[in-house]
Please model this.
Amino acid sequence: MYTTSAVCSEKRSVDEELRYLRATRANQISDAQDARIAQKRLLEITARRQFSAFKVMRSHLEEKYDFEYGKTCPNFERDYDELTFILGTVAGLQAVINDIASQQMVGVPTDIAPLSERALKCVSNTKWWGVPLAARSVVWNILPGGAEGKDVWGSFNRSMLIGERSGVRLAHVMYAISAQAAGDEKRFRDATKRWAAAQNFKPSKQYRLVEDISTLTMINLSDRYWSANIGTRTPIASIGTYWDESNSAAQDIDLGDLLE
Model:
């Protein structure tokens, strides 16, 4: 519940960020300032919900399986507990990122990142759509010196292949987040193109909610990139194509339609 409610507040924070970007482009200073304040308030709510999800997961599973998160591994008795472990861990990483973006209004401990990286070794990367390795790769990319000796981008690639076969493209989203955070536009575009062009992709029926959340997050990331560069959200059904490409839907926008 905390995880899914965080998706809602995060979507609202992205909408405010897009408003900020549009106002900045139009030199509307007061609107831009207002949008940025609203965005940070929503990021605080989002980080608080994600941190709550992480804490509930950690306390419940540590009590049930008698282990220490990030230091020892539990012997899971059922898949649902593994799923809770993974999603709670991802929520913890998101809480760190969003709390920093909100100027640390919540005070989420940053040591969640290295603890999560170690914790994710406890679950199968193949079984869980490539997410454990992709999440660890995000940590390697954001921690100072964390990528040293690691094949970060190769790890993302392997995880995305697993996700495409499994029907859950959460690894693609993590690749996009990591590339966007690093300011690597080439890899960010590659992430969106991989997401959109997955061969013979069939969404998982059992874990459709996770795939749907992944889709919403990828749309948010794409909208942020488009708005920062062009001033509009991603054109309909156009994730993975761009304004400076010959096949971009931006070439087909008829401004006359907007004036009717």
In short: The chain has ten helices and no strands. Residues 29-65 form the longest helix (37 residues). Residues 29 and 141 are 34 Å apart (CA to CA).
